[in-house]
Amino acid sequence: MAKKIVGYIKLEIPAGKANPSPPVGPALGQRGLNIMEFCKAFNAETQNIEPGTPTPVIITAYADRSFTFETKTAPAAYYLKQAAKLQKGSATAGKTTIGSVSMDQIREIAEAKMVDLNAYDVDSACHIIAGTARSMGLEVKE
């Protein structure tokens, strides 16, 4: 028989740097989950990702206080900021452009994020990433 799910916890944690401090500790503590066990498992799973890369994770909490978790790829905005060599997006996106990215860079990001995007092919994934770039104040060059 399957375990009874009591809830899902969504967090964004830097790769390889999970520790019991907020936001990890309080989020897992509310559900009565073993915080150190999660931290060790998460850090082990993300050790081949560049340290510090923001990694979204969905933790499934079960009634017997056990858990499973699934990691996702880093947010598109993180990859776009790296490609454009920026610290942050534009404060007034749509009015001011603060950088540019090429279609080749967008295709590369779309291929990396393909598993987490709601798209059937790379071309439609490119449209999603290009939209994110524009909303950050980046110019998309063909």
UniProtKB/TrEMBL annotation:
Gene Ontology CC terms: ribosome
Boundaries of every Large ribosomal subunit protein uL11 C-terminal domain copy: 72-140
Signal peptide (residue range): none
Keywords, sorted A to Z: Methylation, Ribonucleoprotein, Ribosomal protein, RNA-binding, rRNA-binding
Gene3D superfamilies: Ribosomal protein L11, C-terminal domain (1.10.10.250), Ribosomal protein L11/L12, N-terminal domain (3.30.1550.10)
Residue ranges constituting the Large ribosomal subunit protein uL11 N-terminal domain according to the UniProt record: 9-67
Mod. after translation: One or more lysine residues are methylated.
Source organism superkingdom: Bacteria
Any matching Pfam family: Ribosomal_L11
Family matches, as CDD domains: Ribosomal_L11 (cd00349)
NCBIfam families: L11_bact
Entry-linked PANTHER family: 60S RIBOSOMAL PROTEIN L12, LARGE RIBOSOMAL SUBUNIT PROTEIN UL11M
Subunit comment: Part of the ribosomal stalk of the 50S ribosomal subunit. Interacts with L10 and the large rRNA to form the base of the stalk. L10 forms an elongated spine to which L12 dimers bind in a sequential fashion forming a multimeric L10(L12)X complex.
Family of the protein in this entry: Belongs to the universal ribosomal protein uL11 family.
Family matches, as HAMAP family: Ribosomal_uL11
Function: Forms part of the ribosomal stalk which helps the ribosome interact with GTP-bound translation factors.
Protein name: Large ribosomal subunit protein uL11
Species name: Fodinicurvata halophila
